[in-house]
Amino acid sequence: MKKIILINSPLDNMDGNMEKEDSIPPLGLGYIAYELEKNGFKTELLDGFNKALSKEQIVNKINLEMPYAVTINIFTSNMDLVKDIVQNIDSNIKIVIGGLVVKDIAEEIITWNVKGELSIVIGEGEYIVPQLLLDRDKVEDISKQENKRIYKVGIESDYFPKDLSSLKIKRKLFENEPQKNKYGQEEAYIVSSRGCPYKCSFCGAANNSYNKEIGIFKIRYSNKESILEEIKELKALHPEVQSIRILDDLFLSNIKKVDEAIQIFKETGLEWRAMAHSNTFLKFTDEKFKDLKESGCKELFIGIESGCEDTLKRIKKERKNSDLLIHLEKLLKNGINIKGYFIYGFPNEEKENMDKTYEFFKKIENIQLKYKKGKFETSVFGYRPYHGTELYQEAIEKNNLESKSLGLAHISKKESFNLNIKNYSNVSDEELESFIKKTK
Length: 440
Hints:
By secondary structure, this protein is of the alpha/beta class. Helix content is 34%, strand content 20%.
């Protein structure tokens, strides 16, 4: 049986001291592994992120074990690292590269000096990866260069996963599931949808014209029955599980999905955490907020981004801060914890815009202190132009950059996700860093 090693690529400067909340199982690779095994392959996960492996450790293991093939994901923040890995893999090992950012950098990846057969996948990989490893000559490519080919899984492709409810996952791959969350609960993970209905210009999963033009983007949802079945199977595998974290780009996308979530988790008896959008709560009654809490909703992650209406308009964040404050107050009042994501330093952002964001942060803190029920915490970043976003495209065009890597690299071992790159705002580096630090 041919062995495939699936690599969850690490980041630079990792020392194994990241927060547990950062180290989540690579569910996308789990879906691909299930389909590979269905097609007669043997799979193994090499979780370079969870184990904080160096590129040398990964290359040495691959070249020592000599699997039939490897698959590896790639991110905006580790392009150079992944390039070093694949260029040092022995020649007779097939390589498949995929990930959300590939749509923007495929033509750069195809220039890499790899020794063996390289397949670059734009789009979702569950169904196409097994076929590429069985016989890639039967799959139509969109570009080729020597032993390297680019493939695109468009919406109309036979390899596009149209029905998420039919996808299965190989959970036994994951060494870090379940794991204790910050509340001391044994937590496992699911994905119930792909894509987001909103158009934020800084987000790679946004439902904007840029993503639609590429032809690989379509919002899809698993049905209630398949979600319940997956949780049932998960609990059978891990009876100790107390909480579920839903890793959707946006789980609570509308009132219908909220009602469905309430029903699902009242039935499972588990607590849960997920992403939500302020506009989801526009039609909520006070009773609905109580129902949400009673269903086991422990914490919601909300992209606040900015407290400045002008900035929100600039980044196509569709919401009003006045509405968000009302919704956050009702969530916190009902004992639902909030983790708010803030971004400082959007292109051409002024100090007065950042002042408004900090003032908004303080208003939320005061709401928390008023009720002392739900907890409010933040995750704060300096803006970075990630691949696959409208703002990234603007940065490339504005700066006439030939390389699409943008020179991204990690600042330090303590800040795994905050990248060292040009300050695109109109404040000094010191001022920008000050805003980030005091909002934490």
